Amino acid sequence: MAFRFIFLLSLSSSALYSQGFKLPRSTLAKRDLSSFTENLIFTSGNTDGFFVEIGVGGNRVPVEVDITSADLYTTGQLQGIDSWQNSGTPSDVLVVLRGYSVQQAFASNPADHPGLSAAFPESNAHGVLGLGPTSDSLIVNDLKDAFSPLDNIFVSNSSAPFATILFSGPDDAETSNGPEFAGLFSIGAPVSLEAIFGSDADLSGLPNMTQIVNQPSIPLTHGTFTVSEIAVGGKSVLLSSSVSGAGAGTAVGLLSSRSPYTVVPIDIANAIYGSIQGSLYSATSGLYTIPCHTEITLTIVIGEITIPIDPSSVVIPLSGTSGSQCVGSYQADTERHTTSPSYDILFGTTFMENVYILLGYGTASGQSLSDPIMRLLPLTNLAEAHSYFAQYHGGNIQQSTASSAQSTSFTTVTVTHTPTTTVLIGAPSSTPYSTSFASTSPSASSERISGNLDVQDQVSDDKPNDNNGPTGSVVDQLKHCLPAIIVGAIVVGVFLIGGITYCLVSQNRRSGAKESAYKAIHYAESGDHSRSLYGHDEDPSKYSDPYTDKMP
């Protein structure tokens, strides 16, 4: 119960917020959320995914939501429950999820997970909750009449066999490592913003979430779906699929709730970011570093639904830089080498911020669930998102256009509006958890949960052109060349003064005039007073990074 108390305290001043979907902080601060704890989605600290709180055998447990899994795992100490190892039999325990109580098979390991313990120090146990279908479950595969957690609820309540996720992301203004309100979760009915926010929901212009049930159904095959189009700046990107049986000109997608990045084929990443002035691609991580003020207009069509993506979801702050450096959230796939891939694009949480998601079944009768589907309700208004983005960056924005050419890999970038700094982005740790906690080492698990990026010391410039030359607008180029302009002006001035003096002296001598009252100009010897541009010879930590500092 201690965890719930601390959690509710932290929520009292948080906000449901994103550029496409936002609510004023003052509105939420007035609401008593204690009646909606079963509906709340939250994030914590540096963990990449998002969490809900459930009951497991009378214990309150924060669990990370995993759309690609279909099982319940816990770590840490659960009072009154025996642990389960790989060689044993899964426990059967009463699980309470969103007000529904079911007997659920799950795996438990008393060895705590260091990453989750750091994120939730007030809780004795933590876990991962899979929202997938029973057919994808590893735990209940050999058990008779067993179901995955959501299916277990659906067979008992077959009139509305679906769950919904409204993920807004954490409040960018919050700096606490504690839980932050990041959205709402529901089972059997759409999220009701009116129930939580009352008339303020209408006043704030929030969308009507009940419309999700009227959206076209998108068939799912082991969680995957068809991506019909991706457009950058209104220009379609050429799509192709490595998945057997996929339609021509399409790609196969899969949702992932445990990473902010959307992992795409490198051609798509290049089309989104490759033409951006000042972009930097790392072949090691598959990520582009991007000037934070870059606005990218991106739309994605899944099934029949066109989903506008907020610019702030396409270029995101780099973890650990306080928003001074940014990366593209669409990460080139540099690791998968399977000969039989099941998907082409893995959509992360920065995509999920832009759409309300329903996952469920088209047909449910008794113990039978069939026709898995997904419904999507877009949340982002591009015109409003553009206005907010421009206002946030003080009108200093860089707009991009689509490019089908692959960007040259290099590691040094000169950005037009700030001093030059050299960075290399390391690979993120985005590998999902092992499906068995017993076989996962604590050190490996700790690395997987963070997903942080490292800034490395050694870099090299592989780009054939001079990356350190002036780029950008005329004003930016003049700033870059300012020292040379000043030196040139001084030299010209000195020669001009000398020439005038020579002429005057010569004239006086020819006319027999008296000695001039002006003394001959004395040119004192001087050392080189030139200064490296932007303090290049000084401690680089005194100067800005090569991207705008003002970013959530």
UniProtKB/TrEMBL annotation:
Segment forming the signal sequence: 1-20
Gene3D superfamilies linked to this entry: Acid Proteases
The keyword Membrane is annotated on this UniProt entry: yes
Residue segments, region Disordered: 431-450, 529-552
InterPro entries tied to this protein: PEPTIDASE_A1, Peptidase_aspartic_dom_sf
Source organism, top-level taxon: Eukaryota
The Peptidase A1 domain, residue ranges: 1-370
Segments traversing the membrane: 482-505
Keywords: Membrane, Signal, Transmembrane, Transmembrane helix
Keyword hit for RNA-binding: no
Protein name: Peptidase A1 domain-containing protein
Record's compositionally biased regions (Low complexity): 431-446
